[in-house]
From TrEMBL:
Pfam family, one: TPR_19
InterPro entries membership: 6-blade_b-propeller_TolB-like
Name of the protein this chain belongs to: Tetratricopeptide repeat protein
Domain of life: Bacteria
Length: 456
């Protein structure tokens, strides 16, 4: 779930936060300003998760600068800065990593450093608009407005998407899935903690009410059309229990909940995105834990890649030969050997950044990604070499779409491939109130699911 965490997407997927306040749902390594929902205050996608898990509150930071924090929280923010400074020293030309460092400075309260960092992006001509909500104290400085205007004037606009269907605003879904057999789409609601089916534009009930214990907020979903099942990652809290997470298995035709899978180790988790092999091995990213879990033959949920390996692990995709997993995390993309669990960093030989990605998908011999953690969001195609170990080119498919930055803080999050089209949620709004809670200052708008053609 990003940028509101990275994060609950705020001023873009950080609707409340961004690169470091986000996550797309995110571990106890989430930086201080943990109160946003997705990319809004953690890397967009990170914040989203944190807020959903009940770790932070987007509204509590909506109108002020940095909230009061303990010495331990400040130390955490300082460590985040050090992590990005180290990464930037390794890849000094990666503007996405530099943007993340700017956010980290801001989150640590280092406004002069944040401004200097943003000036560096400006001098390099970074063609992505700064998202104002990613910078709480820094945006109060008059110099920030100048840098923001420059970035907006320079930003690349690409318009290729069209509205595929809409859904009621109160759903606030973070993910969409598709069943090729019936042509139905599925949306998982964050605040309402349920799944709905969409057929020919009509929204229908899918998950059944009254299950015990109640479902958590629904995040990533995938349909296994052959076995007629739907797998969904869920996370949130029940009562005083926070940072709970379950992998759910439903009958895709009836909506019956068949099984729940949990880590069972008593530690906080935030299961985020899911992928399924042809033999029904299921892999799920854990944003809070920073690892990957696996379920084989519907057995127990077990660690596949250890916690802490991929900070803010988010989108996950499977190569066409099913030998590799691609996992997006805050600093880039990891490539994992499915047989052994061994992993390497996807080397980026392109001229653009592959950091700050939320949704990630394999299309033909490359990747399609929702990049909402490095400024205003965009949809990109990442070309790979023949070994799938290097990114050779990043092409922008959609950028500057008005639904990516609506009042109240919105951003695209994740989607689903349907043939050579990509369907995705365009206006995820982190920090949406649950039933009975005070409505937001900016009214929610109907959910927009857009589609964009993917050229061969």
């Amino acid at each position: 779930m990003q940028a509101q965490d990275r994060a609950t997407i705020g001023a873009r997927k950080r609707p409340c936060g961004s690169f470091f306040r986000t996550a797309s749902k995110k571990s106890m390594v989430i930086p201080p300003r943990e109160a946003h929902h997705r990319r809004m205050q953690m890397p967009g996608w990170i914040a989203r998760g944190a807020a959903v898990a009940g770790l932070v509150s987007c509204a509590s930071q909506a109108t002020t600068g940095l909230p009061a924090r303990t010495a331990a929280e400040q130390a955490k923010a300082d460590r985040y800065v050090a992590r990005f400074e180290q990464k930037l020293a390794e890849v000094p030309d990666d503007a996405g990593i530099r943007y993340g460092l700017c956010e980290a400075y801001d989150d640590a309260g280092r406004v002069p450093d944040a401004l200097k960092c943003l000036e560096g992006l400006d001098l390099r001509g970074w063609p992505v608009s700064i998202r104002a909500m990613d910078f709480r104290p820094t945006r109060e400085d008059p110099q920030f407005a100048t840098l923001l205007r420059r970035s907006d004037a320079r930003a690349i606009r690409v318009d290729g998407s069209r509205v595929a269907f809409t859904a009621p605003a109160e759903l606030v879904p973070e993910n969409v899935a598709f069943d090729p057999k019936t042509g139905a789409f599925f949306l998982g609601s964050i605040p309402l903690r349920k799944i709905v089916r969409v057929v020919d534009g009509r929204v229908q009930v899918f998950s059944k009410a009254g299950v015990a214990p109640p479902l958590l907020s629904i995040v990533g979903m995938k349909v296994d059309s052959e076995r007629r099942t739907l797998w969904a990652a869920s996370e949130g809290k029940r009562g005083a229990e926070k940072a709970l997470s379950e992998l759910l298995l439903f009958d895709v035709d009836t909506g019956e909940l068949l099984h729940r899978f949990a880590a069972g180790d008593g530690k906080p988790h935030m299961f985020n995105d899911v992928v399924i092999t042809r033999t029904e091995d299921v892999f799920v990213s854990d944003t809070l834990g920073g690892g990957i879990y696996r379920v084989s033959n519907r057995g127990s949920l077990r660690p596949f890649v250890p916690a802490g390996t991929f900070p803010h692990a988010n989108g996950i995709a499977l190569s066409r030969d099913e030998k590799k997993l691609f996992v997006a995390y805050d600093l880039g993309i990891a490539v994992i050997d499915v047989a052994t669990g061994a992993h390497v960093e996807l080397r980026n030989d392109s001229s653009s950044s592959i950091a700050g990605i939320d949704g990630l998908y394999v299309h033909r011999d490359g990747l399609v990604a929702v990049q909402n953690g490095t400024g205003l969001a965009r949809i990109v195609r990442i070309s790979l070499d023949s070994e799938a170990t290097r990114a050779t080119r990043v092409a922008i498919l959609e950028s500057g779409n008005p639904w990516f930055n609506r009042a109240g803080g919105t951003a695209p999050t994740t989607g689903v491939l349907v043939g050579d089209r990509f369907y995705y949620i365009a206006n995820y709004r982190p920090g949406a109130p649950r039933p009975g809670e005070k409505p937001p200052a900016e009214p929610l708008e109907d959910v927009r699911v857009l589609s964009i053609p993917l050229a061969p």
